[in-house]
Structures are given as structure tokens and as C-alpha cells.
Design a protein that fits this description.
It contains 2 helices and 9 strands; from the N terminus they run H-H-E-E-E-E-E-E-E-E-E. By secondary structure, it is an alpha+beta fold. Strand 2 and strand 3 (93-101) form a beta hairpin. The radius of gyration is 37 Å and the shape is rod-shaped.
Length: 187
Amino acid sequence: MATNSVSASEEGNQPEPVPNIDHLKSKRRRGGSGLIVGVIVAVVLLGALIYFLPHMAKNAPTATNARLVVKRVPGQLQFHGIQVIAGPTDNSFYLVGHITNTGPDAVTGVLADVKLRGPYEKVLLDVKRPMEGMAGDDNRLVSDPFAKDPLKPDDTRPFRLSITRAPAWWNHNLPEVQIVQVTGQGS
């Protein structure tokens, strides 16, 4: 059996040119590196969100889930039920709650340092204010200063602390409160 092989040159036909795809390959490489850069940028942004969102949530302007930072005289005073209550003017408010004397002496005065914070946790107001003892009278609280009616050991009473000139842009979280002075009978 004879085979008849004819080459392209024998027939007079030229081989079909193969398209040059080198320029297409280089575009693919650039597109691939662009994809890698895009993935890296996305990972960095995701990492930034994961880092900053928990910090931003702590600074959210809601007093309902905020924590009160209280530095107190060890073994003397304990606070609970702290709330922010609107005051008589737009830029004033009261911190109200209950205070328990766990120390051995009656307390006749409490001076607190109050820090209001704003954006990025910057301290906007740092003021020292006396705590005012309160007492119940016909379903309402009235002033009952600790100096006139000392807080005896193991007693709990309502208290009020007033802030009269709060900056409008404070974050409305419970402020930081630090007891700076406690006076009492026998101390």
C-alpha cells in the first residue's frame, strides 16, 4: 500500500500563520498582579475593620450598655445602679445610683473626679464634684447631704452627682468617676 504524502510546499500552499499571542500573555500577567494587589488591599481593610470595630463599639453613644469606671477607696464605698439622668438645662445631667459604705466609719462627704470623654476617648471635661446623699420622700428623692446625715457602716443610700456644664459633643457614655476624697466620723 502506497501512501501519498504531500507537503504544503509541494502543493504550493503556504502554511497558515499562527497568531502572535505574546502581547495577550503580558496583559494576563499584569491582570494577575492587579488581582494579587486587590486581594492584599482587601485583607488589609478587613484587618483594619476587625481591629477598629470593637474599639468603636465601646465608644458608641449609648449609656444603657456602658460601664462605669470607678476607682474608689478600697473597702470603703461601693456603687451600683448608676444612671445618667437629664438635668435642668441642655448641657447638664445627674449621675444617680446607690452607694454602700463597707468601711468601719460613717461617711460625711465624698468628693469625686468626673471625666467626660468625647470622640477618640479624648477627655473633654475633668471636674471635681461632691456627691450628694439622697433620701426618699413621698415617692421622690430629695437632698439629704452626707454631712447632715452620715452614711453609716453597712448602709446603702441613693446619691446624686451633678454636672452643670457638659460639652455638647461628649460621647454620652457613663463618665469615668474616681473618688478623690472621703471624709467621715472617726477618720
